[in-house]
Amino acid sequence: MDERSWERVGAASGLAAAMLLVVAFVVAPGAPGLDARTAAVVGYLGDRRAGILTASLLVTLAAVAFLWFVAHLRHVLQRAEGGAEAFSPVVLVSGVSLATVCALSMVPLTAMAMLIARPVRVGDIEAVRVLYGVHQLSIGPVGLLVALFAVSTGAAMVRRELAGPWLGWAGMAVAVIGLIAGVGSFFAAPSGIVMFLAYVLGIAFALWIAAASVVMLLRPEVERVTAARGVFAR
């Protein structure tokens, strides 16, 4: 394949990641906050076990697809920056870190779904509570990594190094939501409001990635006729 085709594959991987993420939110909605009673957590896990396992798989697949998309962004930005290495390293590192943390955050959720499938004992309930806390507290790191990825990618978009400025400003808005959700989770153990912000962040991030992917699918960056400005050039 030529470079145009490879760029379309890279853009399509972002769209795939966004779609998988949205479906994951749909199949396992209504997770209680960390301040919920243990009985409510156990009840949620039991009632939504199939959906939770499906969501865990979908988020993991979304993380894999997102890694390909991040590699595509790195390639495009490195070319646009003409070797200045301004935003492309931050986009790469934050994107890889975000995918890794998201995938790892689903391991406790999968373990809980497995535990709840057998007769529940006192020890299992305690283990479920701890694992649920680990899963919920991942909102903090995920939110902050989303903020870093969105602000760095958005800044590159605003500078017309990628996609378009309007997508860049949308990315800045996603970054603000991520920052609020991420910082908030450290000061208020994921309560109802933090969980709501986490869902809003997930959907907003997925829609932003999907929009950027569609733009790059319709017009691969290699087809741009305007020369990219060097970030540090005067």
UniProtKB/TrEMBL annotation:
UniProt keyword annotation of Transmembrane helix present: yes
The keyword Flavoprotein is annotated on this UniProt entry: no
Entry's transmembrane regions: 12-31, 51-70, 90-117, 137-159, 166-187, 193-218
Keyword annotations from UniProtKB, A to Z: Membrane, Transmembrane, Transmembrane helix
Domain of life: Bacteria
Name of the protein in question: DUF4386 family protein
